[in-house]
Amino acid sequence: MRRPRTQDDLAALHHPGQTPDDSRAVARRLEAWAAEGTRAGDEVNAADLLVAAGEQLVRVGDAHDAVRVLRRAVGTGEPVEPDVRCYLHHALLQAGDADAARALAEEVRRERPSDGDVYLFIGEDYELHGDLREAHRWLTMGIRRALGDVEDTDELQSLEAAREAAHLLVARRRVRRELGMAPDDWDELVPEFPSLDDDPLR
């Protein structure tokens, strides 16, 4: 019987100078581990392993294969923060399947996720792929949710919601600038950063 899988096991698979072939080999190993299922004591579940495999494949440009692996991750029904479907959405955009990505995002939206990082993840994905209107829509939805949580939850949860709101506000202002939109009241709450790479909150 194997020992429990840990976060250290995942970290050990990455190394400086990793080649594309190395990354593909890591992805295959992660898929094999995931096929063994999640057992008592595991720090990482099968979905975590498949998400890590998908990220390896996206990194080396194998987006269609990443979509296959990440559909398996979603199919496990196991939790991955902030939502396992965020990673599939990213891979679908990388693979050029914008329609499937939009359909998946709408599925997520209809569930009204409480985690502001879901809105940030999907919003910044659209920003990176040049769909600034959709990015703005997602970031705005996320801010409304996060600011509502700041007002309606206990102190600890309010602090987390405020952190989420700060990230979303910065990203939204950046997108609005790219869209040529005049600053609004929310924009005045945060400094403006010229690009995603310059955002110190990321």
UniProtKB/TrEMBL annotation:
InterPro entries hit by this protein: TPR-like_helical_dom_sf
SUPFAM superfamilies: TPR-like
Top-level lineage group: Bacteria
Residue stretches of biased makeup (Basic and acidic residues): 1-12
Chain segments carrying region Disordered: 1-24
Name listed for the protein in its UniProt record: Tetratricopeptide repeat-containing protein
Lineage summary: Bacteria, Bacillati, Actinomycetota, Actinomycetes, Geodermatophilales
